[in-house]
TrEMBL record, chain A:
Keywords: Membrane, Transmembrane, Transmembrane helix
Lineage: Bacteria, Pseudomonadati, Bacteroidota, Bacteroidia, Marinilabiliales
Record organism: Maribellus comscasis
Top-level division of the source organism's lineage: Bacteria
UniProt name for this protein: Succinate dehydrogenase
Transmembrane segments: 12-38, 58-81, 102-129, 160-183, 204-224
Length: 226, 253
């Protein structure tokens, strides 16, 4: 098995499986986060956040998600390092823009930038909710007392234009990463042929655009409205 | 279209004495080249001039000069086989260049394709991949009758499309990872699609991919550059098939 995961297609298999797992997570994450901009009282989002925080299934998924990120990131560096070694002498003059997309050639750069975003994003919210919850205010919705996650998020965006732009950028970077990553994952898994090529690419672009615009819309909303 | 004359061109070309020497770029000027001449004819004219000046001529690979053997290589102005599409270098013509231009000519760059001399690289690695699985076993004896093994039209078409690969290595040269996946996928596909290829089918993808890795080619990240630069337009859907065959064979064990 370790031989398989070190082989070229095995490396890519792990990238695509973890990548698709992250794609599924991002879809859930975005759906829930959009509640932020559809209810200014914060009630809907707080209910959603509380449901996720207390749901046993999510408790199981949380470490799996961390593992997924970890494997995806570690393997991406391993994979790119192997590929980099395959061309010890570089070309003097390259003209690659006509033959492949910029995103496809810069997946590691895009991924690494997403990773930087991710670290700051975790410090901003996940860390506070998980390890410093006493610093958060609480709110009572429907007779149940819960942490006021809405205020935690809203205050960050209301209080800092810089953070708003940072989060908009994060969404766009992820969108670019997925504009190639989505269909690439299906190609890697062998789930592609001459009919599905165009379809996966179209679905991938649509997903990437929804992710980019969706995530960017949240800070943008706070930036414009407050 | 009448041919024009390119009055002056600068040819910036990689010179390397042998496999172990370091190599560097040299720039030569060449005058009065017809836009109707092929790129390799231009190189021949340049080489004649170099010989007259007592300079070692530039070594480059070529054979059929009709776009079918895959011997000619050359990374020209940042693209394998130069600025034209769906052609080999021998089918590239000087009308694709402008007067006064500096044309950069480099060898294929890949760890698995070491430079032997100037622009010639050693592509034995492709041979080794084929030896690892790019064959079918047949019974000796008389020639079988025609049409004894039925092949569906679709399968025959796909197989023949993949079989168009001439093993030139432009896919490796074009790929940012120096991956040989398009070549390997073409060789796996043209056999996988035919009944004759079924005997070794289970092992073929595995053995060829293992050999490809061992020889130092990179892995595929699906940029698609290979398909665009391939002179025979081999489709990357073949790579999906190779991935499928490989994963099924690895995971079913
Ligand atoms: C956080 C840091 C991340 C890094 C460093 C990273 C890096 C990479 C790299 C280098 C690749 C391989 C390039 C290629 O196959 O073309 C890749 C592929 C991929 N990534 Fe990421 N990524 C990150 C985050 C994400 C996230 C958050 C998602 C999903 C929402 C994601 C989804 C994918 C997908 C679907 C693929 C395609 C797999 C394949 O081509 O087979 N990545 N990533
Ligand atoms: S797949 Fe295309 S580019 Fe690669 S070796 Fe075959 S003909 Fe050349
Ligand atoms: S010399 Fe044979 S293909 Fe160019």
């Amino acid at each position: 098995m370790s031989k398989f995961l070190a082989a070229s297609i095995g490396r890519k298999f792990l990238m695509s499986i973890t990548g698709l797992f992250l794609v599924a997570f991002i879809a859930v994450h975005l759906t829930l986060n959009l509640l932020l901009i559809f209810d200014d009282s914060g009630e809907l989002f707080n209910l959603g956040a509380n449901f996720m925080a207390t749901n046993p299934a999510i408790k199981i998924m949380e470490p799996l998600l961390g593992l997924g990120f970890l494997i995806h990131i570690l393997w991406s560096f391993y994979l790119e390092f192997q590929n980099w070694k395959a061309r010890p002498v570089k070309y003097d003059k390259k003209n690659m823009s006509g033959a492949s997309s910029w995103a496809s050639r810069n997946m590691l750069v895009l991924g690494a930038l997403v990773m930087v975003f991710l670290i700051i994003h975790i410090i901003n919210f996940f860390w506070v909710i998980k390890f410093d919850p006493h610093t958060m205010s609480t709110i009572v919705i429907g007779g149940e007392e819960m942490e006021d996650t809405y205020t935690l998020v809203a205050d960050l965006f209301k209080g800092s234009v810089a953070y708003c732009f940072f989060y908009i950028l994060g969404g766009l970077l992820l969108g670019f990463h997925l504009s190639h990553g989505f269909w690439s994952a299906f190609q890697t898994l062998g789930l592609n042929n001459k009919y599905w090529m165009k379809r996966w690419q179209a679905i991938g672009y649509a997903y990437a655009i929804i992710v980019a615009i969706g995530f960017a819309a949240i800070p943008l909303y706070f930036l414009v409205k407050f | 279209m009448a041919d024009k004359i390119l009055k002056k061109l600068n040819i910036k070309v990689w010179r390397q004495k042998n496999a172990s020497s370091k190599g560097k770029f040299e720039t030569y000027t060449i005058e009065n080249i017809s836009t109707g001449s092929s790129f390799l004819e231009m190189m021949d004219i340049l080489n004649n001039e170099l010989i007259e000046k007592g300079i070692d001529p530039i070594a480059f690979d070529h054979d059929c000069r009709e776009g079918i053997c895959g011997t000619c290589s050359l990374y020209i102005n940042g693209r394998p086989h130069g600025p034209d599409t769906e052609v080999t270098t021998c089918q590239l013509h000087m009308r694709k260049f402008k007067d006064g231009e500096t044309i950069t000519v480099e060898p294929w760059r890949a760890a698995a394709f070491p430079v032997i001399k100037d622009l010639i690289v050693d592509r034995t690695a492709f041979e080794k991949i084929l030896q690892a699985g790019g064959f079918v076993s047949v019974n000796t004896g008389g020639v079988p009758d025609a049409n004894t093994i039925p092949v569906a039209y679709e399968d025959a078409e796909e197989s023949m499309d993949a079989a168009a690969c001439i093993g030139c290595g432009a896919c490796v040269a074009a790929c940012k990872n120096s991956s040989a996946m398009l070549f390997v996928s073409a060789k796996v596909s043209h056999l996988a699609k035919l009944p004759q290829g079924q005997v070794e089918a289970k092992k073929r993808a595995r053995n060829m991919v293992a050999k490809m890795d061992e020889l130092g080619f990179g892995g595929c990240t699906n940029t698609g550059a290979c398909e665009v630069e391939c002179p025979k337009s081999i489709s990357i859907t073949n790579i999906a098939r190779l991935n499928r065959e490989y994963l099924v064979s690895r995971l079913s064990r």
